[in-house]
Amino acid sequence: MMPRPQMTTINRQWRLARRPSGIAKREDFEYVEASYPTTPLQDGEVVVNNYAFLCAPTIRNWMDPPGNSLYPSINLGQVIMGPASGVVVESRHPDFSPGDRVATISSWQDYAVIRPDQSMTRVLPDDHGFIEAVGVFGLNSLTGYFGIREVGAIQSGDRVLVSGAAGSAGSVAAQVAKLGGCNVVGIAGGPEKCRWLLEDCGLDAIIDYKSEDIRTRISELFPDGINVFFDNVGGEILQAAVDNMAEFGRIVLCGQITGYNDNAAPEGPRNMMRLIYGGIRMQGFLVGHFADRFDNALRDLTEWERSGRLAHREDVRSGFAAIPGAFNSLFDGSNTGTLIVNIDA
Ligand SMILES: NC(=O)c1ccc[n+]([C@@H]2O[C@H](COP(=O)([O-])OP(=O)(O)OC[C@H]3O[C@@H](n4cnc5c(N)ncnc54)[C@H](OP(=O)(O)O)[C@@H]3O)[C@@H](O)[C@H]2O)c1
C-alpha cells in the first residue's frame, strides 16, 4: 500500500489563464502550486497521482470558449484536462483501489480527482509501463485501430490513404491497414518522417506534403481512386482526397488539426455532390465510442508491437514545467511520435 499524500503535499498545476488566440502561448497558462485535494471524495471518485501526460491536439479545442455542445470547454482558472497515466492514491469507487496503475482522462496536475465512470479510466496490465499506457498502448493507438477497422471498414486489397501518417494515431491506422492486407499511402511532413513510414512502418508510398503537390501525387498514386481515407488533418488535404475517392469509398474523419488554432469552425469539403454520386461515406468518430472493446484491441496491439509487426515511437519530454511548451510541438510538426511529458522523474 502506497503512503497517502498529506494535505501539505504540493500539487503542481497548469491552469487556463486566458483563452488562446491562435497557437497557445505561455501567458495563456498559469502555473500554480496548490495543495493536495482537500475536499472529501464523493462516492465514485478516486484521486490519481499522474506520472505521464499525453499531449493531445484536441486539448486546444477545449481551450476555446463554450458553445460547441459536443465537446467540453475548459473554464478560465480550471486545470487543463488531458489524458494521463498514474497511480490511484485514494478511492471511493468499488472497482479501483489505492496502488492501481491506471490510464485516464485526467488534468495537468500532480493529483487529480477523477470520476472513472466518466473518464475512460482503466487499470493497466502488469506488462504495460506508464509511458506505454499513453503511448503505443494509449488512446491514440486505439483511435487508429478502431478508426481504420470499424469506421474505415477496411478490406484486404483496399487502396488506403492516411494523413498525419507519421503521427501517433495516423501511424497506427496506417500499419493496421497494412496488417489487414491493404495498399497504404501516407501523407507526412518532411523527409525524416517519410523515411520512417517507408522503412520502419512498411508503407507502400509516401507523400511529403511540405515539398510535393498533394493533388498531383494523389492522382499519380491512386489512378483508380482511394477506397479508404483516414484523415487527421482536414482542410485542403481532405478536399484533395474527396476529389480522388473511388466509388463507395469511406472517409474516416479522425481529426482536423489544420484548423485547431483558427478560433473558427473548420470548413468542410466543397463538392458534396461527389459524395452523393460516388456513394461515398464520410463519418466522424471518437475513440471513446469503442471504449467497451478496448481490452480486445489492446491485446492485438500488444501482440503486434511485441512481435515487431507494429512500429511505434514515443517523443518523451521531461518535467512538469515542460507541458505547455511540449504541447505546441503538435502544431509545428516537431514531435516525432506520440508526444508525452513524463513527470515520474
Ligand atoms: N477522433 C478521436 O477520437 C481522436 C483521438 C485522438 C486523436 N485524434 C486526432 O488525430 C489527429 C492526430 O493526433 P495525434 O495525437 O496522433 O497527433 P500527432 O499526429 O502525433 O501529431 C500531430 C501532427 O499533425 C501534423 N500537423 C500539425 N499541424 C498540421 C497542419 N496544419 N497540416 C498538416 N499536418 C499538420 C504534424 O505532422 P507533420 O509533421 O506530418 O505535419 C504533427 O506532428 C488530430 O487531429 C487529433 O485531434 C482524434
From TrEMBL:
Signal peptide positions on this chain: none
Ranges where the Enoyl reductase (ER) domain occurs: 25-341
UniProtKB keywords: Oxidoreductase
Molecular function terms, GO-annotated: oxidoreductase activity, acting on the CH-CH group of donors, NAD or NADP as acceptor
SUPFAM superfamilies in the record: GroES-like (SSF50129), NAD(P)-binding Rossmann-fold domains (SSF51735)
Stored Pfam families: ADH_N_2, ADH_zinc_N
Entries under PANTHER family matching the protein: ALCOHOL DEHYDROGENASE, ZINC-CONTAINING (AFU_ORTHOLOGUE AFUA_7G04530), PROSTAGLANDIN REDUCTASE
Protein name, per record: NADP-dependent oxidoreductase
Organism taxonomic ancestry: Bacteria, Pseudomonadati, Pseudomonadota, Gammaproteobacteria, Cellvibrionales
